[in-house]
Structures are given as C-alpha cells and as structure tokens.
C-alpha cells in the first residue's frame, strides 16, 4: 500500500517538472527571438543573403560562356524558356517572402505552443501536489 502513494508522488513531481521545463524552454526561445528581432538585428543578415538562391540554368549552360552565335536545338530552347519562366516565378515569390520573418514566425509559434502545453501541465500537477501536501495556496491564486 505504501508504494502507490510514492509512485503517485513521483508521477506528480515528474509531470510538474516536465511542464516547468516546457515553459522555461518556450520562454527562453521567445526572449531569444525578441532580442534578435529588436536589438541584434544583424544576427540574421547571413540567412537573408543565402536564402535567396535562384534556380539553376539547364545543364548545357552551367559554367560555360554563352555566346550569341550558339546554335540551340528545339529541345534546348524549350529548356531555356522553361528555366527563364521558373526564374521569373522564383524572383516574384522571393520578393514577397522574407525568410527571416518566416522563420521568426515558426519559432514564435513553436515557443508559444511549448508554453501553452507546459503551463497548464505544470499548474495542474503542482496544484495536486500542494493539495495533497496540505499546503495552502497563496492569496490570489485560483
């Protein structure tokens, strides 16, 4: 009979700890995100620079010098036309999306999810622990 309350106590403390860890990690990630967005604004400059790579041209035109006198087959002309269209589509899309802002939004969503899962997990288990220990709740606590 003594093992059951011990297992329950371990369970409650473990899950309260897991909830607290989730809240801490989510909070740290949000603070990191805010610092990079507001204070250390150049911390992500390299990511902005390297994230906008254009599509590669067809194989025949890579690394070689294109000349005006080059004779292209019908298939090669179609490949070049398709590549130019793909390049224009990419350029239009690249102008609309800021990769750093997109990553910040993903990080913020992930951090908030950790907090939204961890906080209720922690509060629920910590209240059960306090209730079983007979410790009164502080004034103003729900």
In short:
With 142 residues, the chain is mainly α. The protein contains four helices and no strands.
**What is the number of strand segments?**
0
Number of helices: 4
Shape summary: elongated
Q: What order do the SSEs take from the amino end to the carboxyl end, as H and E?
A: HHHH
Q: How far do the termini sit from each other?
A: 32 Å
Low-pLDDT segments: none
Alpha-beta classification: mainly alpha
Radius of gyration: 28 Å
- Oligomer category: single chain
Main β sheet profile: none
Q: How many structural domains in the coordinates?
A: 1
Beta-strand content bin: under 5%
Mean pLDDT: 81
Helicity, in percent?
A: over 70%
How would you portray this structure in words?
The protein has 142 residues and is an all-alpha fold. The chain has one domain. Helix content is 70%, strand content 0%. The protein contains four helices and no strands. The protein has helices spanning 3-38, 45-50, 74-96, 99-133. Helix 1 runs antiparallel to helix 4 (99-133). The mean pLDDT is 81.
What are the main properties of this structure?
mainly alpha
Secondary structure: elements and pairs:
Blueprint: H1 3-38, H2 45-50, H3 74-96, H4 99-133
């Amino acid at each position: 009979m003594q093992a059951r309350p011990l297992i329950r106590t371990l369970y409650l403390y473990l899950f309260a700890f897991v909830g607290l860890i989730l809240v801490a990690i989510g909070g740290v990630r949000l603070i990191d995100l805010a610092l990079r967005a507001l204070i250390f604004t150049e911390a992500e400059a390299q990511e902005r620079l390297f994230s906008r790579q254009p599509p590669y041209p067809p194989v025949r035109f890579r690394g070689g010098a294109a000349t005006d006198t080059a004779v292209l087959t019908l298939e090669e002309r179609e490949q070049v036309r398709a590549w130019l269209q793909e390049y224009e589509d990419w350029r239009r899309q690249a102008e609309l999306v800021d990769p750093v802002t997109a990553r910040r939004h993903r990080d913020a969503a992930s951090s908030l999810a950790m907090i939204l899962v961890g906080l209720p997990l922690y509060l629920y288990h910590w209240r059960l622990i306090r209730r079983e220990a007979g410790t009164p709740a502080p004034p103003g606590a729900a």
